[in-house]
Amino acid sequence: MRREAANTWSWRGRGRRLAPILAVLMAVVTGCAGAGPKIEGKVGVLDPARILAETNSGKKAKETLAAFSKNRQVLIELDEKELRRMEEDFVKQASILSPAAKREREEMFRRRMQEYQQKVTELNREVQEKQKDVMDGFRERIELIAARVAKRLGLQVVLDKGKGGPTFYHEDTLDISNQVIEEFNREYP
Q1: Is residue 83 a contact partner of residue 113, using CB atoms and an 8 Å limit?
Q2: From the centroid of its chain, how far is CA 147?
Q3: What's the predicted TM-score (pTM) here?
C-alpha cells in the first residue's frame, strides 16, 4: 500500500509541476494564433508554355526562332555538302595523287573540317543567344500582363504551373492562364 501511495504521490507531484508549464504553452499557442493580423492570401497559377503556344505574340516568337534556326541550319548543310564533295574527290583521286599531294589534300580537309566544327559551334551559340533573348523578352511581357490580371482579380501571388515550376498541384479554379492569354492578345495583337 505504501508503494501505491508513493507512486500516486509522485505522479501527482509531476502533474502539479507540469500544470503551470502546460498552461503557459496553451496560452502561447492560442495567443499566437489569435494575436496579430490573420494572413489570408489569394493565389493564382499560370502556364507560360501555354501562353507562348496560344498567344499571337508567342506564335510570332516561335516562328522567328524557327526561321532563325532554319537559316543557320541551311548554312551548316551547305558546308556539310562541300565537305562530302571534298572527301569524295579525294577518294576518287587518291590512287593517282603523289604522297605529297595526298598529305596536302588531307591537311586541307582537316583544316576545313575544323573550320566547319567551329562554325557549327558558333551558329549553335547564336541560336541559343537568340532563343534566350526572344524568350526573356516574352517572359517579361508575361510577367507584366500576369501582374495586371492578378491585381484586377485581387491575387497576391501567381505561381508558374509549367514543367519545372514550383507548383505540384493546384485547383483548376486558380489557373489564370486564360485571362492572361486574352489580355496578352489584346495588348500584343
Answers
A1: yes
A2: 19
A3: 0.62
